[in-house]
Amino acid sequence: MSDTVTYSVHGAVAEALIDNPPVNATSASVRSGLAQAIRTMESDPAVSALVIRCAGKTFIAGADIKEFGKPMADPGLPEVMAMMDRATKPIVAAVHGTVLGGGFEVALACHYRIAAPGTKFGFPEVKLGLMPGGGGTQRTPRLAGLAAAIPLLTQGNPIGAQEALAANLIDAVTTGDLASEAREFVGRLLAEQRGPRNAGALPMPADEPALFEEAKTTLARKMKGQTAPLRALEAIRLGYAMAFEDAVKQELAIFRECLAGPQSKALRNIFSAEREVARIPDLPADTATRPVERVGVIGLGVMGRGIVMAFATAGLPVVAVALDDEHVGAARKSIEKMWSSSVAKGSLAQDAMDKRLALIEFVTDAERLSSVDIVVEAVTESLAVKQGVFAQLGEVTKPGTILASNTSFLDIDALAEASQRPEDVCGMHFFNPAHVMRLLENVRAAKTKPDIVATIMALGKRIGKLSVLSGVCDGFIVNRMLSKRSREGFFLVEEGASPAAIDKVLLSYGFPMGPFALGDLAGLDVQAAARASRRASATERELRADFPEQMVAAGRLGQKTGSGWYSYDENRKASPNPLTSEMIAAHAERHGLALREIGEDEIRERLLYAMVNEGAKILGEGVAPRPHEIDIAMVNGLGWPAYSGGPMFWADQIGLEKVLATIERFRAAHGDAYWTPAPLLVRYAGEGRGFYA
Ligand code: COA
Fold first, then answer.
1. Which atom of ligand 1 is nearest the CA belonging to 66?
2. pTM above the 0.90 mark?
């Protein structure tokens, strides 16, 4: 039928087999192959039905993302679906794997659906800033009702085969071989003389405006700032205003608007960047990895515990080492408590928790690390202490054991030298809470061997993390960029902006929280310690803006003490803290600072451009191999809204020339020390290009 669709006839049943790796997307040749298969089946009097099936690990997982933004070759998916609607013989989708987006829509346009157990169904396109454009918003509610259809169409999370069956979205779940059960299913259809059945011909379910209102509230919380989910909701409503055929046309028009919009462009870039960061430019894809069967974690504070949990959750045996029995006991208790609360909430089964705990060996003797293949060090953030630990690790571990530090700010090259085995040393920088946060910054130090880089990237994937590779620098990607935002936040406060006003600007930009709320959450003592580590190189102005230190001195450490930039009640609900305005007023008086009104645009540009400029330095220095790493790290590590694409993509959309001009303006007002533009930014702006291209 085409390069990707094979047609075969088995008795009275024809089969169209799609084989378009990697995910059987509805590329042009799939669409034309399907159209041809439908035509052939219709015109062959010996054939009574058509089964559509896919080779490989999945049924169609969506439209071909790579075709988006390019002119669409004929036939379009709507035309193929219209052919299905007009077909005079039944068409059955026999599905497995991930039936997503356009793939789910193709299945819904078929007359019957039969699925292998374990199949997932969903409309993830909202996560790409899109919404279903192939009739999904019309067929789904007609089959499943509004209560099931609305979350499926607007939130992007898939459902399983049993749930799809219960929602009337599929007709059967197989127990054996999909292809043969599909033919049997068709045999029964033919025997019972059941012909084509179009979901589009069904009436819309009874309208329930309250469900739409409820969905808007849910989306404002769960999909904050995103336009596509609301457009999907709007598209469902079309079914109440016009005939199916017209609603489908309007739905496609909305899809096209989404596709052309900035959020989809940004989210699609994030989708491909997430996959791109797994490929390291100077590391051959076939680089051998070292076997990792058993891991060690040394240092069982908050980070160490989270890392132990992350490994054990992935089924890896862990040797967890702390200083003494007291630390070991506290760590064990805290891990048990966290998992027990998941069990109590029903998100973790008791036997799964027991299995995880059984994988962890809590010890005080570092010699026990002689059995592991990798050790992640998570002791106190002090160079001297960590150097001592690395010297010890170099001795107690077997040759070839990977020695990874979870340091946030310290020089991994110095730790590498202390181990006497610098080629085995790297960084694995987890984010707090380490068993929850998806991002992992893997750090390649000066002498780290390539196979270690390959191993820790693979290990990150194995434990469900999204790993980005960073070089050695102060704070790696996320904390280095964050420290510039924090600094700019303190300067803005010194100039007259209130912390609450600053937080509000970033919240409305799309961050989950602003810098001051984040400081309270992380702990102002932690922030003060990070500042202390940079004291030697700090400017006078940086030293003067000593708000974290002032608050630590006053015992205000943030959420954990109930008082920081904000006040917190026993449920950690924030309210304005009068002590904060008093502190700022006294600070201004002490240093003779004149406070002024600062507009939202200036606040936003100073906070965000400070990060963009630092990102350009990180890129120019080669700390991040590509802008992709920076955007993925900032979206997943700091909550930069994915729908603006991350700092580098966002700057590209504004235009680097414009970004540079603003930075130059800030430089004139605030000085070279803070606003010297990154050389790479200057160069790219001059060349009229962006960070990506
Ligand atoms: N169009 C084109 N290529 C696609 C694609 C699509 N819809 N979905 C996935 N791919 C590609 C990926 O880019 C990747 O290519 P690469 O190996 O060159 O990087 C490859 O398929 C494998 O995808 P990956 O995500 O790494 O594999 P996985 O097994 O972890 O996940 C999916 C498979 C289908 C669940 C996942 O890729 C996915 O969610 N895709 C998007 C589905 C979607 O949004 N569909 C609606 C589009 S409108």
1. 2
2. yes
